[in-house]
Design brief:
By secondary structure, the chain is mainly alpha-helical. Helix content is 48%, strand content 3%. The protein has one domain. Strand 1 and strand 2 form a beta hairpin.
Amino acid sequence: MAFILINLPSLTDLHHPDRNGDRQGLCDLLWFPTGGGKTEAYLGLTAYTLAIRRLQGTVAGHDGDHGVAVLMRYTLRLLTLQQFQQATTLICACEDLRRENPKKWGQEPFRIGLWVGNNSTPNWTKQSEEAIKQEKGQGYSGNTGTPIN
């Protein structure tokens, strides 16, 4: 909670001393080491950032309804999926609130994306089609065994 509270002034006030340049009023970069236990803290700041961008409207010619508001980087594959699930839950909650009051929160939906590189998932539709065909082609062999076999 303290982490969230200490960051609110610089996220809210476009002229805060922590934002001492023209570009810094548009972008804040927060980095947290893996395993720091800060998920709820930065998801709280994410929700606040999404809300304040919508409420402030256009800043320096940039519409708060569009563009990337938050980037999250994870170094462990399993952690990536877990954190993405939590972030997705947050975005869905934000979207529910937006739909209840589009006049306040805007017409543009809240969105989330995940990029994991081409070693984890195909990056192109054609590659996805081929991967699905390969998986379907393997089918059930009828043999049973233990997870060790």
